[in-house]
Each structure stands twice: as structure tokens, then as C-alpha cells.
Write a structure and sequence with these properties.
The chain has 183 residues and is mainly alpha-helical. It is built from four helices and no strands.
Length: 183
Amino acid sequence: MTAGGGPRTSPDPVVIVQDGGPHGHDRTGERIAERLLITVREDLGRADSKAAVLLSGALALPAFLIGRHGSPDWRGPADAMLVVAGVLWMIAVAALVRALMPRTGTVRSEGAVTFFGDLLAPYDLARLSTEIVEAGRDPARWLLIQAVDVSSILSAKYRAIRWGVGSLAPSAALALAWSLIAR
């Protein structure tokens, strides 16, 4: 409330482009692009959580098997199952670690300032200033470029998670089968 009793409003944080810009005065395009970016970022967080949980389980699997049966004392052909399980386990762990590793590149070919890698040295302040001004002229386009960047990261994470699960499941099954046969 202001001293006059009327409601106090904050100014719009987005500068309106003269003549409404390419998306009009209602900023519908910006809101849609912003929502899309928010959704992709939320999915990125879920992918990281999934990979972390799977990696924790994958790292616990050998300890569980060794704790239950002791270290293997290679007795016969069934031990080949354990070797294959170990190779698949290593592939799964590598894939899940890859899913959790930060990405420092982008798939886009055009210049835009959308993530931390764009601000790293060697940087050109004149180029950065020009790209910031350009982003201000069409915020919806800038948000969409950023959504594409984040989506490419999300896609790589889910690809690595698929590899991890695709290797971890048969690894666990083989290790379990070995534990039932070898004892």
C-alpha cells in the first residue's frame, strides 16, 4: 500500500521492446519459452537425482555381494558369469558417472550467451555486449536458445542413464545367478 492507500506495484522486470517487438505487448511468446526452459531445468534436476541414486546402488552392489559371500575363489565355469557381470558393472558405473558430470559445451552453432561456458576466457566484452543487447531485443528467442542448450544436456544425461541401467540390470542378474550357483 502507498501513502495514498492504493496498491503499490513493482515495475515490470522485462523491458518492453518498442512497438511490442516480434511477440507483441502481451509477452505470450516469452512466457511460453520461459515455462519450457523451467520444465527442462526441472527435468535436468530429476535426471541428476536418478543418476545419483542408481550410482549409489551400483557402487553398493559389489560390497553387498562380497559381504554376503566373501571374495570369490574362482572355482569353475560359473565364474565367467561373474567376470561378465563385473565388466557390465564397470560400464554401468562409467555411464552413471558420465550422467552426473557437468557439461561444458553446447550443440548450437550460432553465438548467444546462455550458459557459463559462454562467459569463460577468452572472452570479448564487445561481442558479449552485442549478444546481450540482441537477447534483450528478442527475449523469447534467447530463452528458446537456452532451452535448446539445456535440452541437449538433458538428452546426454538420459542417454548415459539408459546405458547405465542397461548395463547394471544384467550385471546384477549375472552376479546374483553366480552367487546362487557358485556356493
